Amino acid sequence: MTETYDAVIAGAGPAGGQAARDLAARGYDVVVLETEGEEEFPSRSNKSTAGTFPSTMSDFNIPDEVVMNFTDEVVLESPNHYYARHQPGAVLEFADYKRWLVEDSRDDGAEYIFDARVSKPIVEGGEPVGVRYNGDEEVYGEVIIDATGPSAPLAKALDVVELKRERQAIGIEFEMEGVDIDAGGYADLTDAMMLRLDHDLAPGGYSWIFHTGGDTAKVGVCYIQSEAHHENAKDGFSIDDYLSYWEEKDPRLQDATRIEGEQHRGSAHIQLPGQMSTDSFMAIGDTVPTVDPLWGEGIDKCMRSGRAAAAVADRVLTHSGRDTSASEMAIYDQLWHERVAPKVKTRLFMTELLYRASNERYDDLMDDLSRMSADDLTEANQGNKLELAKMLRVGDAKLVFDTLKDWYTR
Questions:
Q1: What is the CA radius of gyration of the chain?
Q2: Are both 113 and 179 inside the same structural domain?
Q3: Coiled-coil ranges per the record (predicted)?
Q4: pTM for this structure?
C-alpha cells in the first residue's frame, strides 16, 4: 500500500526540520526524507559554524542544552584593526541542534525515513504528487518541500530553482583546542564570535573564530568563487590551504590543535532568488540565498524559511478544497521576501561590495563602524539604503561603479 502524507519534506536540516516541527505541531501527517543514516546523523551535513542570537533562540524555543557557549560580543577584524560590539549570542553544537529538531518534531508525530536518497519528484498531470528515493521507493504527499540544500534535486527537476555554479561559496571549519583567545595585539575573543575580512586569508570571503569555551573555538574559512576571489587568490591554494596558512600565520592559532572528528565542510549558492514555488511545491532553506552582510545568521534564515513554508502548507491544506495550485503556493515567495530576507537585493549588493573591497578599505571600515550607532548599523545590515550610503567614502566610487556594472550585466 502506497503511503500518502499531508507533506513530504526532503532534507532534515534547519529549514526542513523546522517545517516538520511546525506542521507536526499542527496535527499534519508529515514525513521527512534524509540522505544520512540515523546512527551517523548528522555527519556529512554537520557543516555550520552555528552562531545565532537571542531572538532566534526564543522565537524557535531552541534549548540551552544544544549551546556550546553563550557569547557577549561580535567582533569584526581587518588586517590591522578590529571593531567590537556588545551583542549577546550563542554558538550551537550543530549536530546536537539538528538531532533536537528531529526529536522535537517526532514528539509531535513527524515521521523520519533515514538512508533515503531523494532522486526526483513524482509528477502526475503536470503536478508533483510525491517523491522517489533510493531508486524505486516512493512516497506521496499533498505538499512537497525541497530542503536539501545546494543539491536541490526536486527543485531543479521541476525548473523552480536555477542554481548558478559560478557564484558558489565554499567553507571549511575545524573545532580546535589550545587557541589563544586573548592574544596581545588582537581583540579579546573571550565569549565572542569573530569574523575577519582579509584577502590574504580568505580572498573574496572571510575567516572566523567562534569561542566555544576555555581554550576551544570553531575556526574556519569561507570564500565565494567570484571576481574578488579570482583577483586575490593565491596560485594553487585550496580552501584547506588557506586554513592551514592562517594557522601558521596567526599567533592565536600557532599552538592550537584540531580536534579529531570535528571537521565541517559546506557550500551554498549566492544569487538573487527567482521563483521558489509551483503547484504543490516549495523550495526552502539553502536552495534559495539568505544573507546578512555583516553578521551572517544562516540558521535564523533557514528556520524562518521553514516556518514560512509550514504556514503556507497549513493554509493550502485547510482550504475547503485543499487548493495547492501555484498561485496559492506562491504565497511562500511573498512571505520569504517579507519575513525571511526582506530587502534581499540591497543586502546582497552590500555583500558584493564588502567582499570586493581592498584590505586597506577593510581597515577603514573598522573606523567607519566605530562611528556608527548600534541602531544605524543594524539598519544598514538589514538593507536600509540611506544607512548603507553613510558607510561609503568618496574613494569607493569606482568600487560601487564596477560592482553595479557587473551586477546588471551578469
A1: 21
A2: no
A3: none
A4: 0.92
